[in-house]
């Protein structure tokens, strides 16, 4: 039986080996410790004419029950460390010099992946962004991970990758996929109310497909459908089209809906019209929909006025 999720990481074998080694060692320790407990509980149970012995405390006699297991554990710990030092060096301490770069940004409750634009440099204003991580198969991918607000943790089980993201720091690491397909990305740090929904997808493609996808991303606004645009801007991470409430309310039947919103702590009922839609997108926390957290990020600087028009017009049609 396969207890591990599918492994598509070039270095996944080493991580799995380490996981199994630690599991085996801790399992044996568990069996011994619990076995000892059970035997003691049985052998020294309460019985007729049995008196508890008063131990005066011969230091060494008692201490050895603690010291010997501690030394054993420490020795096993060193064994694990020494046996896997090379994996640590190879996976965590060295970055590949070839391959491509992506930026990964975590915020409540959204992943954004960015790719170098025309200037081939990451972190500049012409970066391309997506809410999905696309990478070519068999290629080294160096990532720069950042958190905007609180602690998050990038978790790609199939990639055997889990890396905390800390506000104010850029964590660098790398990955290489050995298989194509679509895999889950989750946040492994309780980061707030929408934590469990902070999910994204890793799409591993062959080089041609990947280049095509990147090209589409570059082509940007003009040929892009409003739905594509919203996907790229991350709206669907928190809003559905089919009626499912996610972190935010669904878009289904939004236009014309009567809604209770909270403005400056006071409730009022409004009807969703064009002006309201626009305001919800540009000033997300001005009117907060009742029963939802004020969790929508301010995306106004990421959307051009034309893009806002495009989105508002599209939202009117989602019945
Ligand atoms: C991180 C989660 C998140 C993302 C990403 C997000 N939203 Fe929201 N959105 C919310 C939440 C939560 C609410 C409800 C609370 C509020 O009104 O602020 C909301 C409310 C709205 C509303 C008002 C809905 C209603 O029922 O009145 C609109 C319209 C909207 N968002 C549009 C967008 C668009 C367009 C995008 C992408 C450009 C987007 N949102 C991205 C979380 C998000
Ligand atoms: Cu998170």
In short:
The protein is an alpha+beta fold. The chain has helices at residues 12-43, 59-93, 207-219, 226-233, 274-282, 305-317, and strands at residues 100-107, 110-115, 128-130, 132-136, 141-147, 152-156, 161-165, 171-175, 181-187, 200-205, 258-263, 266-271, 288-289. Helix 1 runs antiparallel to helix 2 (59-93), helix 4 crosses helix 6 and helix 5 packs across helix 6 (305-317).
Describe the structure.
The protein has six helices and 13 strands. The chain is an alpha+beta fold and 319 residues long. Strands 3-2-1-5-8 form a five-stranded mixed beta sheet. Strands 4-10-9-6-7 form a five-stranded mixed beta sheet. Bound molecules: heme C (HEC) and copper (II) ion. Heme C is lined by residues 109-110, 230, 233-235, 237-239, 247-249, 254, 259, 272, 277, 280-281, 284-285, 288-289, 292-297, 299, 311.
């Amino acid at each position: 039986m396969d207890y591990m999720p599918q492994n598509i990481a070039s270095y996944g074998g080493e991580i799995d080996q380490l996981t199994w080694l630690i599991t085996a060692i801790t399992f044996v320790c568990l069996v011994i410790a619990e076995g000892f407990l059970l035997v003691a509980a049985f052998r020294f149970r309460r019985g007729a004419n049995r008196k508890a012995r008063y131990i005066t405390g011969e230091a060494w006699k008692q201490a050895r029950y603690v010291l010997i297991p501690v030394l054993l554990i420490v020795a096993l710990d060193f064994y694990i460390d020494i046996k896997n030092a090379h994996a640590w060096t190879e996976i965590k301490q060295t970055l590949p010099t070839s391959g491509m770069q992506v930026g990964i940004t975590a915020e409540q409750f959204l992943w954004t992946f960015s790719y170098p634009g025309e200037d081939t440099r990451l972190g500049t204003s012409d970066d391309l962004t997506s809410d999905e991580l696309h990478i070519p198969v068999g290629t080294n991918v160096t990532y720069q991970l950042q958190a905007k607000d609180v602690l998050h943790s990038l978790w790609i089980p199939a990639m055997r990758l889990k890396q905390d993201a800390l506000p104010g720091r850029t964590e660098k690491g790398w990955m290489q996929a050995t298989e194509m397909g679509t895999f889950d990305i989750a946040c492994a740090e309780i980061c707030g109310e929408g934590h469990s929904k902070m999910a994204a997808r890793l799409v591993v493609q062959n080089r041609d497909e990947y280049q095509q996808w990147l090209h589409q991303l570059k082509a940007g606004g003009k040929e892009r459908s409003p739905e594509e645009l919203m996907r790229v801007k991350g709206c669907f991470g928190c809003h559905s089209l089919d009626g499912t409430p996610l972190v935010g309310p669904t878009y289904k039947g939004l236009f014309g809906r009567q809604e209770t919103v909270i403005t400056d702590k006071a409730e009022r009922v409004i009807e969703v019209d064009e002006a309201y839609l626009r305001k919800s997108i540009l000033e997300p926390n001005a009117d907060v929909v009742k029963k939802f957290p004020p969790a929508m990020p301010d995306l106004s600087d990421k959307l051009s006025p034309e893009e806002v028009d495009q989105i508002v017009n599209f939202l009117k049609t989602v019945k």
